[in-house]
Amino acid sequence: MPTLYLIDGSALAYRSHYAFSRTPLTSPSGQPTGATFGVALFVNSLTSRPDLTHAVCIFDAKGPTFRHEIYPEYKATRQKMPSELADQLPGMKEMIKAMGIPTLEKRGFEADDLIGTIAIRAAAEGFDVFIVSGDKDFGQLVSSKIHLLIPKGKGEGLEIFDEAAVEAKWGVPPEKIIDFMGLKGDSSDNVPGVPIVGDKTAAQLINQFGSLDEVLSKAEEVTKPALRRNLIDYAEQARLSRRLVTIDTSVPVSMTSDEFTFRIDDTEKLADIYREYGFHSLLAKLDAEQVEDSSDLKYKAVTTEEELDTLIDTMKKVDLLSVDLETTSTDPMQAEIVGFSFSFNNGEGFYIPACLGYFPGLEGETGRLGQDITAETRWVLNKLRPLYENSTIRKCGQNLKYDALVLHCHGIKLKNIASDSMVASYVLDPTRRQHNIDSLALEHLNFKKIPTSDLIGTGKKQISMADVPLEKITPYACEDADIARRLCILFQKQLHEGELANLYRDLELPLIPVLMEMEYNGVALNVELLESMSVEMGEKLDGLTEEIYRLAGTQFNINSTKQLQHILFDKLQLKPVKKTKTGYSTDVEVLEKLASQDPLPKTLLEYRQLQKLKSTYVDSLPKMINPVTGRVHTSFNQVVAATGRLSSSDPNLQNIPIRTEIGGAIRRAFIPEKQSQVLLSADYSQIELRIVAHISGDEELIAAFHEGRDVHASTAARIMNVPVEMVTPEMRRSAKEINFGVIYGMGDWGLSERLGIPVNVAADFRKQYFETYPGVRAYMDGIIEQARRENLVTTMMGRRRFLPEIDSTNRNIREFAERTAINTPIQGSAADMIKMAMVRIHERIKELPAKMILQVHDELVFEVEREAIDEVKTAVKEEMENAMKLKVPVVVDLGVGENWLEAH
């Protein structure tokens, strides 16, 4: 028996919009896609139901209906559709059609009436009908052939309502739903009903008297005075309400049941839509055909010297050569090379094994960092060296910093990096969550790559890439090189179209070898100092533990959230600040607020910070030392932060506290490797404030920097109306919070929280601030307006950040986007500045006895031979201060020391 699903499209769109309103999604072009994605997920789940043979998705048409004619206030209380949802509707409908379900709407009629008409007609034709909607009005249509499917909350599926279920839910059978609704009304549609009549009363009255007409005609028999009076006074309103909720089942609908047959006619079109919206998971599920048949791909293993020589001769003549390595580890400092892959034409790739015994060799040897290198690997490396180090051959690939570092560890320099698909993807959309080659291939090329797990497995059964047979690794490796090249060519065009080519070419690409070399350089550690710190911190933690037990009045598991909740809120009766799914929160923000009520929260904060720093740095850093180099090699992440900032991992150096005693002690453990060396720290002074002065053009702020004033003291004097010499340290601290708070879009409440002052005082501070620096206020207003107009903001070098949330009807989301719009050009320009400085410094000091080893926030750290320190200081200062020209002086603070703390 055929089954027809009638989907209430308007209700589904609203439901999906609000489901994703707190975590808004955007397409690669920056357009809102949350509602569309929610609809796609729902329709996908619906079409997977085995009984679905026919379906149609029905939307409300714009304009009034007959209900507005008989009751002008109908739906008058509804808010206007959010713009970010309205903008998605046309594309959403096209997507639904591509998913195999036709859409329908008709001017002058609501979706309810179209659904009702089609449901009655289809049931008469022998269909089983399912109405997919949460609207209780549809209960009036339920019969032996028509069912109601109501979506449950949180993606828990659909609840089926037959006649018995309708009566169990609302207390009346389907045929009496309109009488029931006539009495109780419907606030969502502004259907008035009878005042003080709710669900329970309406059902009782209908069951007692039989129908709405009987209820109204026998209203005098109702015993409750207020209810009796309202039934008499509002009888006509009840009849009007019944008419408003009655679904019209005689709408002229020209589409026939055959036109509702579910089928996907054009899988490629649906795949294109998913790619356009960035729906990677749905694209993968669609399992669309690849760009070309695998039989069309020319992937070949090179296993003889003659083949290798021929290939090398060919590659020497190509314009763009894609390179990739297969290795045994994701850590480039530990990785052994398994093979080399290359591509220089679409659909072609060549794989050269390095350790499978195909090439002649003598005895093995050890690489620079202790990797086992067979003579065969060294022989192949030496054959390929002229290619890698040829500066006239343009190289491309995916995440080339990794490949360049592995090659560097084997004594080979990868020269002329012309394109990197991962970095290009990041420049095009820095807010994108992933830039891995699998997702990029699927989205941009409709190519489903071979998963790495297909070769090496997962978990305990995972094998080494070195153990994968040649016939399996060859297509995988060739695919990597081939796809990376195609992506690079595609992205290059998009970068030019988006006016991002200069940023990519002049900044991000030259930065790759800089970061690679910094990772290779690493940094030396004073292990003895860290070990003694660990002992001291352990003893202090023991003391804090005893103090916590004393303040709590009992022993408990300090690291157990549940037990801590009991101590704080049950035993000590402290006032909770906020609640989570598992009870009252005990996070840092909460403990800071509770500290004014009791000494225990303050002690807990000290314990947590000490414990985290001990485990994250003091105990972990020695374990991260490379056994061969004796140094720690952090990874610098180029494609993570949406602002353009670099980050680091393994270890994350960004999170070492700057101004605390413990943070300073950890920095003391970072040292030069040799007695003949020192560390040089170069730190931009108030760079973000200087950029604010530049881009806002505020005359007072510009003058303050040109005159070399203490900007924080100057701000304090102006907003607090005192002479500069009368500014106290506390006043300066408050002004500093305001200066930097403005950069992050901090409002009155946020400032009051930071300074511990009343909101009205904070508001007055901000008012005085903007009167002092009117150009800053104008910048903030202007950049928010620009973001609303263009849905993006840019840095001084043209880096883009999409902000579709700027038009959100959700206040929290919209205000976050506004703060981001204010901050991104500032923080992003600072990021661009230090990156440009790094590129130039790297080139300038390459012949000097100095190494750039760390980048943290606005600071660069170098390991320098003592006799060259003055020359290096001059070079670093000049390049940092002139990386980007501002309307104010750029100041770099230099420090030299026997460790990072001394230098900083």
Account of the protein in words:
With 904 residues, the chain is of the alpha/beta class. Among the domains are: 3-163 and 248-268, Rossmann fold (3-Layer(aba) Sandwich); 289-484, Nucleotidyltransferase, domain 5 (2-Layer Sandwich), CATH 3.30.420.10; 524-630, Taq DNA Polymerase, Chain T, domain 4 (Up-down Bundle), CATH 1.20.1060; 689-824, 5' to 3' exonuclease, C-terminal subdomain (DNA polymerase, domain 1). The chain contains 37 helices and 26 strands. The strands form eight sheets. Strands 3-2-1-4-5-6 form a six-stranded mixed beta sheet. α19 (437-445) packs across α21, α31 (729-743) packs antiparallel against α32 (748-755) and α33 packs across α34. Residues 1-263 form the 5'-3' exonuclease domain.
Write the layout of secondary structure elements.
Layout: E1 3-8, H1 9-19, H2 34-47, E2 54-58, H3 66-70, H4 83-86, H5 89-98, E3 103-104, H6 111-124, E4 128-132, E5 146-151, E6 158-161, H7 163-170, H8 177-184, H9 199-209, H10 212-217, H11 225-233, H12 235-245, H13 267-277, H14 280-286, E7 298-301, H15 305-315, E8 320-327, E9 337-343, E10 348-353, E11 365-366, E12 372-373, H16 375-388, E13 394-397, H17 400-409, E14 417-420, H18 421-428, H19 437-445, H20 453-456, H21 470-497, H22 501-521, E15 524-525, H23 527-552, H24 561-571, E16 579-580, E17 583-584, H25 588-594, H26 599-618, E18 635-637, E19 647-649, H27 661-668, E20 670-671, E21 677-684, H28 687-696, H29 699-706, H30 711-720, H31 729-743, H32 748-755, H33 759-772, H34 774-790, E22 792-794, E23 800-802, H35 811-844, E24 850-856, E25 859-865, H36 869-881, E26 892-897, H37 900-903
